Amino acid sequence: MSVTLTDQDKQTLRTAAYGAVTLLSAAGAAGKPGAHRIATDGSIALASATGLVGHVLADKSTGVKLNGKSVAAIADHVLPALTASMSLLKKQDPAEADNFRATVLLALETATHHGEPTPTLTDMTRKITTALDAA
Fold first, then answer.
1. What residues contact 116, with CB distance under 8 A and at least 6 apart?
2. Domain spans of the chain?
3. Residues 40-95 pLDDT 10s
4. Close Cβ partners of 52 (under 8 Å, ≥ 6 residues apart)
5. Contact 20, 129 (CB under 8 A)
6. What gap in Å lies between CA 33 and CA 35, rounded to an integer?
7. Which of 23, 9, 4 is nearest to 104 (CA)?
8. Among residues 38, 40, 45, 135, which one has the least CA distance to residue 96?
């Protein structure tokens, strides 16, 4: 199956994937030394993605805006992008939708592998998973 993604589609996928890591970092470690580790480990996991998703995430084009003054502001942007990404990929190639979902969840797991996730990290992971599964 051939997948056709517009530049906007690709931007949505990048925003969703990198945004999930940013959201986890902001929620779980705001103001703590672990925030950088969460972001770094999660981003490394995203960079190891394969398939169409890997190619899209590897493109370092500009335009992914993940700044927000609060976790809520970041979530308002990222959670809908996760759902939109899954909807888009499910319509064109269900296997790539599965790849995208697995890639994002691996990034979250990798980001929190240094110890027991806090209740805050666990809750944010649940919210991200719910957004992925809403499509």
1. none
2. 7-133
3. 899 999 999 999 999 999 987 666 778 788 899 999 999 999 999 999 999 999 99
4. 3, 5, 93, 96, 99
5. no
6. 6
7. 23
8. 135
